[in-house]
Amino acid sequence: MVSECQSACTFSHSQLLHSGAVLSALQTMAFFTHQVIRGLSSSAVRNAAIKHVTIIGGGQMGAGIAQVAATTGHSVVLVDTNEEILKKSAKGIEGSLKRVVKKKFADKPDVGAEFIAKVMANVSISTDAASVVGSTDLVLEAIVENLKIKQGLFGALDKVAPAHTIFASNTSSLPITDIASSTSRLDRFGGLHFFNPVPMMKLVEVIGTSATSQDTFDSLLAFSKALGKTPVSCKDTPGFIVNRLLVPYMMEAIRLHERGHGSKEDIDIAMKLGAGYPMGPFELLDYVGLDTAKFIMDGWVEKDPGNPLMQPSEMLNKLVAEGKFGKKTGEGFYKYK
């Protein structure tokens, strides 16, 4: 009886397979199953966690981002055109880690030394960006705020980086859309705006353009969280969120002083004690860099010349023309020598 049933079942199955309509249906089903599996595999690749990071720019911001990424277990390549800058960056990262260890592992020097060694093992340096992006998940740029230079960098790397690699800029003022226009991966391009000093500041502005895919944006959000940061979602508008509010505030403080309505010392004290800010606007301008503030304002004025919040300041322009950029030059609104 069993053998009869098996024979009947085999016969019926054979008949079905030789039925043209059913065979066509099975082939169609197999095709769509293959497409679904392929789609899921592609999605898995796109949504894979960012593990390997290439950071272009060995300055304060680039080194800070490298430190945080390496500390959270990411493999980091820090790139700059100058070997000496890179050595200085690596030394700076190690020095910063030693300060962390002094607080975190004060009574456990061996554990502290192991921590530093582990983090530094995650960091390598290179002067050749094109040669190191072949296996990277993310290329993050933190170089000079110059649109043409950024476009040139990303345009060149776009030709050699893998298709899955996400590109991001740490720009604080330039449109991400304009930077991305030099590449063919508009859907895999976004902004990651960190704040200085990176190891201390918790915020990251994650910027998406109209062409940034949801997969890319989600990956950038997830990466920010993996660094222990708090990300906020931003549109690609001038200044994003923080600088769009902060820079006009600092500029109005200068105008207030220019009009003779308050000394810089009194304005700083008023905002610290009255608003609870850790720094007054003039102290903050000197810390950020007067040249940086002027650069941002010049770009905004060019794009929106009629906006009263974005008008230039004669006092700021004069200080920058004299090379008085703030703390980094020893003098800005205040003297630091």
Automatic annotation (TrEMBL):
SUPFAM superfamilies: 6-phosphogluconate dehydrogenase C-terminal domain-like, NAD(P)-binding Rossmann-fold domains. Homodimer. Interacts with GLUD1; this interaction inhibits the activation of glutamate dehydrogenase 1 (GLUD1). This is Hydroxyacyl-coenzyme A dehydrogenase, mitochondrial. Residues 239-336 form the 3-hydroxyacyl-CoA dehydrogenase C-terminal domain. It comes from Oncorhynchus tshawytscha. Pathway: Lipid metabolism; fatty acid beta-oxidation. Its EC number is 1.1.1.35. Keywords: Acetylation, Differentiation, Fatty acid metabolism, Hydroxylation, Lipid metabolism, Mitochondrion, NAD, Oxidoreductase, Spermatogenesis, Transit peptide. PANTHER family: HYDROXYACYL-COENZYME A DEHYDROGENASE, MITOCHONDRIAL (PTHR43561:SF3), PTHR43561. The record marks 193 as: Important for catalytic activity.
